[in-house]
Amino acid sequence: MPNPNHPCIVIPGIKGTGLENIYELPPATTWSTWEAGVVAPDFDSLALESNGEVDEAEIVVNRASQLLGVAYDSFVQSLRGRDVPVYVFPYDWRYSMVRSAKKLVNYVLALQKKNLKSLAPANWDRAFDFACHSMGGLVFRQFVAAWRSAMPGTPLPVNRVVFIATPHLGSVDAVESMIRGETVLFGGQKELRKLARTFPGVYELLPNPGLQNTVVNQNGVPLDIFDIHNWQSSVTPDPNDPGDFDVEQAHLTAARGVLNALPNVSMPEFGLAGRILVIYGIKPNSTLRTVTVDQQKDNWYDFDHAKMGDGDQVVPVESALLPGVPSMEVRGEDVSVFNLKSHVLSLHALLPSLDEVSSVTSRFFSGVTGAALLPIGTDPARFHP
C-alpha cells in the first residue's frame, strides 16, 4: 500500500524570505527579521530598477537566503514531526511570481533526484505536499503553469496542497502599501511605500476584479486599479521628477496579465480534487475592504474612512477562499495574549506559527480529511466542507 506521507515543500509569503547582498564579502544581510520589523529598510539595498528585473544599485546583487524564523520555524519543525523531509523554498519576493515559479520548478526537479531513505523507494511517486502561506500560494499556482510549460506530458508533482491565508483575489492592503505604506502588510513601515512601487511582486497582490468593489469613486462606481489613471496623482510619474519612486503602468499591465493567467488549481483538469485545503484567518472588521477615491481631488484615496471587512488584517475572507475547496477558519481570539509574537505580527503573518495551523496541516498531509482535521475540542463549525 502506498505510503500516504510525502516530502513537503514550504513556500513562504511576501517578506518571509531573508535577502543577502552577495556583492559584499562576506555577504551582507539586506532583509531579515530585524529589517522586517525593527529598523528602517535600506533603500539602496532593496530597490529594483524600473524594469523590475534587477537590483538598482550597482554594488548590490541580492539573493534569497533563508525563511524568517519568527514566522516559520515552529511551523516547519512541526511538519517535520511526521518523520518525512520538509524542505523550504526561499525566494526573492520582490520579483514577479513568474520568476519565482520557474525557480521552484528547478528546485522540485532537483529534489526528485534524491534517494529519500525515510520513504520506501517503491512508495514515493516523486510528488510533494505543498504548504503555501500568503503570496506563496500564488507562487504555487504559477508553478503549476510553469511545470506544464517546462515539463509537458509529465505528471504534476503534487500530492496535497494547503493554502494558508493566500490572497487568491488580492488584497486592498497592497494598494495602501504602495500609496502611504502604513499597512499591516508591511508591518506599518511607511518607508517601504516607495520601494514597494519597484517590486513586481507587490503589484501581483493588488485586488483583481473577482474581489468586487475594492476601489470605488465617490459615486460607488468600481475603478480599474490596473489603470494608472485611477491612482493617486502623488504616486504617479511626474515629468519634473523622473527619478522618483512611482507606480508604473508597465508593472500594472504585467501584473494584470500574470493574475489573469493564473491557473485555478481546483479545476478537475489538474487532478487535485479532494487534495486541497484552505486555512484562513478571521477577525471581524479588521481588514481593508473598500476605499473611496475622490476623483475631483487628484484621485485622493481616503484610507482613513475605508470600509473594513472580515479577514486576517491583510486578506479578506472571500479572497482567501477557493470555490469548492474545503476550508478551516482561525479566529482572532484563538491567539493567546501570552503569545509574544502576537504583539508584533498580524494574524495574517502569525497564522503559520500557530499550533492549530501546523496540526491541521500535518493531519491533512497524512491523509485525514473533513472535520476530523480539527484539534480535539474545536468547534466543528470552524470547518467548511
Query: What number is the mean pLDDT?
Result: 91
Based on helices, strands and strand pairing, what is the structural class?
alpha/beta
- Helical region count? 12
Order of helices and strands: EEEHHEHEHEHEHHHEHEEEHEHHE
From the N-terminal CA to the C-terminal CA, the straight-line distance is 27 Å
In the predicted model, the low-confidence regions spanning at least 5 consecutive residues are: none
* Helicity level: 25-40%
Judging from the principal axes of the Cα atoms, what is the shape?
Answer: globular
The CATH topology name reads Rossmann fold
Strand content: 15-25%
What is the CA-based Rg, rounded?
Answer: 20 Å
**CATH architecture call:** 3-Layer(aba) Sandwich
Task: Just give the CATH class.
Answer: Alpha Beta
Q: What's the total count of β strands?
A: 13
Summed up, the domain count is 1
Q: Main beta sheet: strand number and arrangement?
A: 10 strands, mixed
Could you explain the architecture of this structure?
By secondary structure, the protein is α/β, with parallel strands linked by helices. The chain has one domain: Rossmann fold (3-Layer(aba) Sandwich). It is 26% helix and 18% strand. The chain contains twelve helices and 13 strands. It has helices at 33-37, 43-46, 69-79, 97-111, 135-150, 172-179, 192-196, 200-203, 249-261, 317-320, 347-350, 355-365; strands at 8-11, 17-21, 28-31, 62-67, 86-88, 128-133, 158-164, 215-217, 276-294, 300-301, 307-311, 327-331, 383-384. Strands 1, 5, 6, 7, 8, 9, 10, 11, 12 and 13 form a ten-stranded mixed beta sheet that branches. Strand 8, helix 9 (249-261) and strand 9 form a beta-alpha-beta unit. Helix 3 (69-79) runs parallel beside helix 12 and helix 4 packs across helix 5 (135-150). The chain is globular, with a radius of gyration of 20 Å. The two termini are 27 Å apart.
